[in-house]
Specification:
11 helices, alpha/beta, binds ligand PBG, 324 residues, single chain, two-stranded antiparallel sheet, ALAD, TIM Barrel, 8-stranded parallel beta barrel
């Protein structure tokens, strides 16, 4: 009789036949930073912190020592620095460039990734510039935004970022950023494109962490419709053509089919972002012991990797690295 259970009979046999293994080397650890001297717990994301520069360097160092190769930094920008043209996003003396410098000088082998988008800096809370169209309706303008994103990417590259990661979903930004970086000699700076980024309710806790909610409207004219899969393939082909080095699907858990299909349609490394809402659901359900946090975290990450993501952005990176 054929008995599939023979391949499950002992830990040793299960180890032999396992198709997917997680490693701390798979993770990118997202970290929040603010321009204050103290570390602050984030109300909307229990267990996460807005770090001071000093706290950021220490936390990143601990993660790196656990085998995590990369961090991505998200800045909480002071309200008085937010403007409708988001000039602070390319201030060479701004918070992100200082954070990159601090991280790279303390941990030269750590890969430092930055998020390229205007929402933390924009008085409107949108990823792009907001302007009235000919009828007076507010519009998120594409091409003028891309010009600012290029400035922002250059600012991060000058400060020493290893990878810039445009999360804005404007058209044509990957090519424009690649050309700007190359023109200034940053040919080694990589682009991890948020390729299939959906207009998702799962980003809510993150926007709380940065106080970056859109002041009006939603992000549906630039982020993708959760109902669509073929559009993700189209974005993948375009980002690959425009020179992305790696591509990303976001969120991760509810979009495993997208990860699998994107993986089939590209030869680039595929990343997936287990976003703040996914984090919070697991945190909330395990707080009172309804779910076993460690088991659920490792299972959710295994599922994301099994679907085809070889890189996972997760707020659980440090915990998971410790558990593995
Ligand atoms: C902003 C950005 C967002 C996230 C990463 N970069 C929020 C948004 O698009 O509104 C979300 C991450 C998360 O929810 O964990 N460009």
């Amino acid at each position: 009789m054929i008995r599939p259970r023979r391949n499950r009979k002992s830990p040793a046999v299960r180890d032999l036949v396992r198709e997917t293994t997680l490693s701390p080397a798979d993770f990118i650890y997202p970290l929040f930073v603010h321009d204050k001297d103290t570390d602050e717990a984030i109300d909307s994301m229990p267990g996460c912190t807005r770090w001071s520069l000093e706290g950021l360097v220490k936390e990143a160092g601990e993660a790196h020592a656990l085998g995590i190769p990369a961090v991505v930094i998200f800045p909480a920008i002071a309200e008085n620095l937010k403007t409708s043209e988001a000039q602070e996003s390319y201030n060479d003396k701004g918070l992100v460039p200082r954070a990159i410098q601090a991280l790279k000088s303390a941990h030269p082998s750590l890969c430092v990734i930055t998020d390229v988008a205007l929402d933390p800096y924009n008085a409107d809370g949108h990823d792009g510039l907001v302007r009235p169209d000919s009828d007076g309706n507010l519009e998120i303008v594409n091409d003028d935004t891309v010009a600012v994103l290029c400035q922002q990417a250059l600012c991060h590259a000058r400060a020493g970022a290893d990878i810039v990661s445009p999360s804005d979903m404007m058209d044509g930004r990957v090519l424009a950023i690649r050309e700007s970086l190359d023109a200034e000699g940053h040919t080694d700076v990589s682009i991890l494109a948020y390729t299939a980024k959906y207009a998702s309710a799962y980003y809510g806790p993150f926007r709380g962490a940065l106080e970056s909610e859109p002041k009006a409207g939603d992000k549906k004219t630039y982020q993708m419709d959760p109902a669509n899969v073929r559009e993700a393939i189209r974005e993948t082909m375009m980002d690959e053509d425009e020179g992305a080095d790696m591509i990303m699907v976001k969120p991760a858990g509810p979009y495993l089919d997208i990860i699998a299909k994107v993986k089939e349609s590209t030869t680039l490394p595929v990343a997936a972002y287990q976003v703040s809402g996914e984090y919070l659901m697991i945190k909330a359900a395990s707080q009172d012991g309804w779910l076993d946090e460690k088991a659920i975290v490792l299972e959710s990450l295994t599922g994301i990797k099994r679907a085809g993501a070889s890189i996972i952005l997760t707020y659980f990176a440090k915990d998971a690295a410790r558990w593995l």
